[in-house]
Amino acid sequence: MDPSPHVPSPNLFSLASHNVLITGATRGIGAACALALAQAGASICLVQREPQSGETPNLDTFNAIRALGATAHVVYCDLGDLQAVRELFPKALDAMGGNIHVLVNCAGIQRRSPSVDFREKDWDDVLDVNLKSVWLLSQAAGQHMVPLRRGKIINFCSLLTFQGGLTVPAYAAAKGAVGQLTKALSNEWSQHNIQVNGICPGYIATDMNERLLADPVRLKQISERIPAGRWGNPQDFAGPVVFLASSASQYVCGELLVVDGGWMGR
């Protein structure tokens, strides 16, 4: 692993001249992360599902980045289509001029059902998007970054990387595996000056948690257990993602950074 560069403290978090590929940035946590990375100086390549016939593409994040004066590109890919995922990294490289410095795997889907009734298709859908696409994109990123001896990979994990949850067996299995994958890749690639880390959100007020937010009993149970006294919001991830993408985290390897208002410490 190369020594950490001698960078003045005010510049440690600068991402000027960095190209970032990020999934799951059309809304929620991913959108907030994409904007934060752009504000730090990065050029952003957004991955989103290609709109169906008659649909209007969701370009809110793209337009918000452009409004900052930053560079933004969009590549279309259904992360549930594994062949399309295999073709994604080369497409992103082409869009970004042949160079990607940071990969952020933020996309994820959820399926909720009691485990005795959990459908095999739901299991497969969740594992493909939340785990296998992360592996395929990380492997492609490693193939690009290892010869260059530089790069950052940030995987979004979960509290369910550590805990089992309720009625979300596929999600818990996938996020547990993403945590271990993060450590495994870090073990191999840190020596090549590539930092692979994870961010583990706690309970965040996004559309993925709509059912919990609408359930007064579960909402009360969860809220009372968070020491910070509130659910998180997407903007709570701006600092962590810029930290892990920047020179400020040059000797941080295989870390699972929990952003949860204190839930795991209780």
UniProtKB/TrEMBL annotation:
Keywords: NADP, Oxidoreductase. Gene3D superfamilies: NAD(P)-binding Rossmann-like Domain (3.40.50.720). Pfam families: adh_short_C2. InterPro entries: KR_dom (IPR057326), NAD(P)-bd_dom_sf (IPR036291), Sc_DH/Rdtase_CS (IPR020904), SDR_fam (IPR002347). It comes from the Eukaryota. The keyword Ribosomal protein does not apply. Belongs to the short-chain dehydrogenases/reductases (SDR) family. This is Ketoreductase domain-containing protein. It comes from Serpula lacrymans var. lacrymans (strain S7.3) (Dry rot fungus).
